[in-house]
Amino acid sequence: MSAASSNLFDDESIRPTRVEVDLGQLSRNLAAIRAHVGSAKVMAVVKANAYGHGLVAVAQEMVRCGVDSLGVALLEEAVILRQAGITAPILVFGGIAETQIPIFIRHDLTLTAPSIDKLRLIDNAASSMGVTARVHLKVDTGMERLGIHHYSAEKLQQASLQAKHVQVEGIYSHFANADAADLTHARTQLERFLEVLSFYEKHSLPTPLRHIANSGGILQLPESHLDLVRPGIMLYGVYPSEECARSVLIQPALTWKSHVAYFKVVQSNSPVSYGSTWESDHAVRVVTVPVGYGDGYFRALSNKAEVIIRGQRHPVAGRVCMDQIMVNLEWGTAYYRDEVILLGKQGKQQVTAEDLANWAGTIPYEVLTNINTRVPRVYY
Ligand SMILES: *Cc1c(COP(=O)(O)O)cnc(C)c1O
């Protein structure tokens, strides 16, 4: 094991509240995705601190496993990867500001061109730097987020032929609900995208790398795999939604744990935590665990979530505080420093990202990306 985000402390003295990431499981998930998509290339999506798993360590593992490229949302994320010595291709999905363009180019990053305006700005910047910028065109086929509308895309494609300092390496779109049970909208998006792509054949031009599939598309729409797929959540062993087909077997790679910091007996009718929202009508054993909403353990989990201690599930009692929670053991036993599983497995019990999402009224994506950076990440 190695502690990554904390060089102040050795492995024994880092905070007991920590995230442990099984890098081997990440590589098995990647292998399962690869086997499923056949000849399509795989871009590992590592935005938002690799869905909470740790940006640099996960990216390094993906590169070690021979992934074709990496995808991030922000320029800043991509620059951190370059500074960590990663030389693999990195596509930045997000919108770009004009002043950022030279930084992209200097770090050899792949830009997203969502409009003719932005494409021209990239072309001009590359020209004045005397280099060629690598670009993927972004087409909006029904997400209404970023990209030229599919019915206007030909103008962007035409403009890209004139941009002499731009190499159009790829063209992509993004699904709004490829993880749903009803795939009507996703199929419409795919049809629109294929129509846009027919431009290249019509003009006998080489087709750039075509990609649209996120985890939902990978799992449910094999015809959307095209030249490259962009798995995010499923790389981390979590399915994108409850109704999504589980056509690839994956397993979570992240365990979020802490330990028992304090033990006490709470007498009957003695309310626990802020707002006095919980009390028992009989004396119970209650432990305090040093994790809170300041770590990303949602306050919405108050009086809802369960944790695992000594192989048993126990409920959170009262409000989640910024740095601590209380857990009702009833008559169960626990001692100071016993392991507490917030997310993950212990013995026969498991708390999943889906469980936490359901208790907190959100989705597993937010549970994972919300784990704060003050929680040290440990890799094995
Ligand atoms: C986040 C993101 C993905 C990955 O989505 P998942 O649902 O996590 O697989 C793929 N492509 C783009 C453009 C994204 O922003």
UniProtKB/TrEMBL annotation:
Q: Which CDD domains match?
A: PLPDE_III_AR (cd00430)
Binding, substrate? R145, M322
Cite the Alanine racemase C-terminal domain residue spans from the record: 253-380
Active site per the UniProt annotation: K47, Y274
InterPro entries listed in its UniProt record:
Ala_racemase, Ala_racemase/Decarboxylase_C, Ala_racemase_C, Ala_racemase_N, Ala_racemase_pyridoxalP-BS, PLP-binding_barrel
State the UniProt keywords alphabetically. Answer: Isomerase, Pyridoxal phosphate
Keyword Isomerase in the entry? The reply is yes
- Modification N6-(pyridoxal phosphate)lysine occurs at: K47
- What is the catalytic activity of this protein? L-alanine = D-alanine
Q: Which residues cross the membrane?
A: none
Q: Which co-factors does it depend on?
A: pyridoxal 5'-phosphate
Q: Name one GO biological process term.
A: D-alanine biosynthetic process
Pfam families found in the cross-reference section: Ala_racemase_C, Ala_racemase_N
User: Which class of enzymes does this protein belong to?
Assistant: isomerase
Instruction: Keyword check for Isomerase, yes or no.
Output: yes
Record's GO cellular component terms: cytosol
Q: In which pathway does it act?
A: Amino-acid biosynthesis; D-alanine biosynthesis; D-alanine from L-alanine: step 1/1
E.C. code: 5.1.1.1
Note the SMART domains from the entry.
Ala_racemase_C
Q: What does this protein do?
A: Catalyzes the interconversion of L-alanine and D-alanine. May also act on other amino acids.
For this chain, the family text in UniProt reads: Belongs to the alanine racemase family.
- Protein name per UniProt: Alanine racemase
Where is the organism placed in the taxonomic lineage, from the top?
Answer: Bacteria, Pseudomonadati, Verrucomicrobiota, Verrucomicrobiia, Verrucomicrobiales
